[in-house]
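Lab channel / #folding
Pinned by the channel admin:
"Please post every new chain as: sequence first, then the structure tokens as a reply. Keep commentary short and put observations after the output so the thread stays searchable."

First post following the new format, from NK:
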Amino acid sequence: MISCTEPAFLSVGAEITITPEPAQLAEGDNVTLLVRGLSGEELAYTWYAGPTLSLSYLVASYIVSTGDETPGPAHTGREAVRPDGSLDIQGLLPRHSGTYILQTLNRQLQTEVGYGHVQVHEILAQPTVTANNTELVERRDTLSLLCSSPSPAEVRWFFNGDALPVALRLGLSPDGRTLTRHGVRREEAGAYQCEVRNPVSVSRSDPLNLTVYFGPERVAILQDSTTRTGCTIKVDFNTSLTLWCVSRSCPEPEYVWAFNGRALENGREHLNISGMAAAQEGTYTCIVKNPKTLLSGSASVVVKLSAAVVSMMIVPVPTKPIEGQDVTLTVQGYPRDLLVYAWYRGLASEPNRLLSQLPSGNWIAGPAHTGREVGFANCSLLVQKLNLTDAGRYTLKTVTLQGKTDTLELELQVSRECALGPGLLRSAGSRAHHLLPLPWGS
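Reply from TO:
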């Protein structure tokens, strides 16, 4: 485009003015340099495209009486002088920008001079934005953006489609083409564009996306969306628990879980604890590390069994064993972190010990072992081929890895049932028996 200003003209009569029409001109436009203030007695017009009345700047001379026009050295083939002295220029080029002088000759052979100015503006090409780095670490790296355009023009910057915030504008160079930010912040991550403009053209660059890495910050452990960092979580026996590790970080951090200071084979943001038992009580720590900032953080919780979790039971199977059967004294809720256990026939004293299971998993017979008792890893006791003397008290004693000792007792009943003859049934418990008459016999 061409921008024209009111000419500061010099002439004998100080009346000639030259005004471009239209005033704002782009490359390829047509313009007329309108002349005003002529006396009407002009014999000839001479146009110059330059700062002085030099032959090298001569565009054309025009004889009013004949209408003859003679081109000069500065004629480009696009200029034509009108009968009123105005100058037409077709298909403007950037080189048409500059000062234009009109010199007139009147009948008294006097000359007058007028000045005008033409500015041809380019149709601006799309600018480009380049950066020293598009991936930066918060508060550590410096951001430097450059807006490149082949033409001189006013430069404006945009951030995420909006005008650049004031804080960012403080980092602009005097010509507006360079944007610098020391110790870049996370809020400055996003899409940057620059725009070049002149009076006739506007062009905006493609967005350049900037990433700012930060964190990890505010590392926390959650349970069911509730922050548990630094707390103690009580969990029921044999239930499941999922812990989530969260933080503020870009990019997503790497995760390491530790239990009582020992790293676990888990690289995910969550940790599942299933079948909660005493062996799983302790401190769980989530360690997060940002691979870009090389910073790390951690959070911990303590996980414990609920107070009512240790409730072992001994259940005989079958529940009402008969003489001659096998019975299993099944232990429900036995400690998962079991170290050793022992069964006793009666009170828990060494002479009454039936058998013990060692940490190796093998069991050994005790002084009261009859050869019919077998122990299992789940603390259960098998007594084979019951007799009536097997009825009575059985005691189980367990010791966990943490040294916790529990004692549990069961009173076993053994029944005997057999037919003695027509119309009679003998029924006996472990201590006494009775003869009962049948309702249809005597």
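NK: Residues 1-14, 419-442 have pLDDT under 50 and may be disordered.
TO: also worth noting, The chain is about 0% helix and 50% strand.
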